[in-house]
Amino acid sequence: MTNLYEQAWPLIRAVAAANRAGDQIENGALFAFDGEKLTPAATRAARPILRYDQGWRSLLDASDERQVCLDMYLPLLAARPAPPLVLAQLGQSLDGFIATASGHSHFVTGPTSIVHLHCLRALSDCVIVGAGTVAADNPRLTTRLVDGPNPVRVVLDPKLRLPLTRGVFRDGEAPTLRVRARGVPLPSELESANVQELEVATLGGQLDLPALLGELRSRGLRTILVEGGGVTVSAFLAAGLIDRMHIVVAPFVIGEGRPGLRIPSAAQLQDCVRPPPRVYALGGDILFDCDMRSHSAAESVAPIIRRVL
Ligand SMILES: NC(=O)c1ccc[n+]([C@@H]2O[C@H](COP(=O)([O-])OP(=O)(O)OC[C@H]3O[C@@H](n4cnc5c(N)ncnc54)[C@H](OP(=O)(O)O)[C@@H]3O)[C@@H](O)[C@H]2O)c1
User: Fold this and answer.
1) Residue to mutate (ligand 1; options 95, 118, 156; most atoms within 8 A of CB)
2) Quick check: 228 pLDDT over 80?
3) Which run of H or E residues covers position 281?
4) Taking residues 181-192, what's their average pLDDT?
5) Nearest CA to ligand 1 atom 47
């Protein structure tokens, strides 16, 4: 990891830890950073570097090297009383694919983007993946490349097609919640002490995603990362449930493969989803950080590319 992450990441981790402490943070509160944790800074004389005002705001100078990382990560750090957050990510090729047709996806994006993905996991209470990703990748979904806690792993396996031999069900590296459609019986050969079970209602043959988010929040999981694959992220997007989306584009062409975002198309371009983006360079990749709740016109945000690493 480069200096920028080494300098900014401890501060970002401290903000995440303050959020997880579960205390309500008053608007207007000022905080300093002692190198490990945030400390209240009652006045500006105490040299605060963060202010809470319906979200975290940086008081660092724009010239401070940490600022670009704070710009990228602070919007993801939902403290009480701010509402919980659903973040989605995908790494895709220039032509919009997230894996080859055979399901090979290691790795679509470069090493810097993979570190960034591990940072996103470390800032999230849980990470959701579809059964297709667990079948194809056998992912661990841990934060092994960065300093930070592993999120709870949530696997959408509505028909229970995945065998217990998949790592998330047996490695014990983090809690795993298996989500199946209500009414699908759990056969004894799929029972495991390592796996928590959750049944969710279906709507039109699909999992009721608002009901799923309600279940996760009732378990204290407030920052939710939808990590893939394309079918799963698209289902959340089509249901209007994504607050923030990180799409990383790697400059190569897959040709034909597993698609990223696919949602019902609007007839007119002006009716398409067009969130205002911030744009960052992650190694040789480009990250589009899209605020899906903003009512600003996409053109109103200067698409300045800032290099993180
Ligand atoms: N580049 C990246 O960022 C990235 C990230 C993750 C994965 N990948 C790659 O993407 C591929 C897998 O992606 P994918 O799009 O094919 O599949 P996926 O999204 O991983 O999984 C889709 C499956 O998950 C279940 N599911 C998801 N949402 C559901 C809902 N709302 N209701 C009911 N079931 C739901 C369904 O399981 P059933 O089929 O059992 O009904 C569905 O077919 C793999 O090749 C993987 O390597 C790439």
Assistant:
1) 156
2) yes
3) strand 277-282
4) 97
5) 105
Q: What is the largest CA-CA distance in the chain?
A: 63
Give the number of the atom of ligand 1 that is nearest the alpha carbon of residue 92: 1
Q: Is the Cβ–Cβ distance between 152 and 221 less than 8 Å?
A: yes
Q: How far apart (Å, rounded) are the C-alpha atoms in residues 280 and 120?
A: 15
pLDDT of residue 302: 54
Angle at the Cα of 19 from the Cα atoms of 34 and 217, rounded to 5 degrees: 165
Whether the model pTM is above 0.70: yes
Interval 263-276 mean pLDDT:
94
| Residues framing ligand 1 (Cβ under 6 A) | 90-91, 98-99, 103, 105, 108, 129-133, 136-137, 156, 158-159, 161, 206-207, 209, 227-232, 235, 258
Distance from the CA of 18 to the center of ligand 1, in angstroms? 33
Spatial distance between the Cα atoms of 273 and 109, rounded to a whole number of angstroms = 24
HSE-up of residue 180 (Cα within 13 Å, Cβ side): 16
Domains of the chain: 3-76 (no CATH), 85-307 (3.40.430.10)
